[in-house]
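Can't paste images in this forum, so I'm doing it all in text. The chain is below; anyone willing to post the predicted structure tokens underneath?
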Amino acid sequence: MKIEVRKAVKEDMPAVLRLINELAKFENEPDAVELTVKDLENDGFGDRPLFECFVAEADGKIEGMALFYYRYSTWKGKTVHLEDLVVSEAFRGKGLGGALYAAVINYAKEQGCKRTEWVVLDWNTNAVEFYKNSGATVFKEWRTVQMDEAAMEAFCAKTR
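Text version of the structure:
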């Protein structure tokens, strides 16, 4: 099997969305994806792209992707946030995930970033062990905090 990792282009977004939906099923959230191909095309390839993406092809077909964007740390400066890295179930364990991971880390280093960060579910022990073995630190004391659209609306209504 020939593996090639490259920067995604607009025409890759249907395959990227397919992988995002596959990830949602893996994470037991099959109905959580609201995003469309058009959203990905507009948000990733407009005048001010909100994300960048690498895709991994196996024998010419996209079977993995890593979507990331820049963040700014008040302590470190420019960083990269890896939002999602997913490989089609049939291609897991064949090197695509590692190749995508390496592409993101190398890209961040080449861009002068001081840190690359991401979130991993605690029950995804294979991923946790992979990250630890690569030299990454998996923090136990930090908590991810989110406010969804309904909560933002309620908060804004109270603070207007």
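The CA atoms of residues 90 and 107 lie 27 Å apart. Residues 3-118 form a domain with the Aminopeptidase fold (CATH 3.40.630.30).
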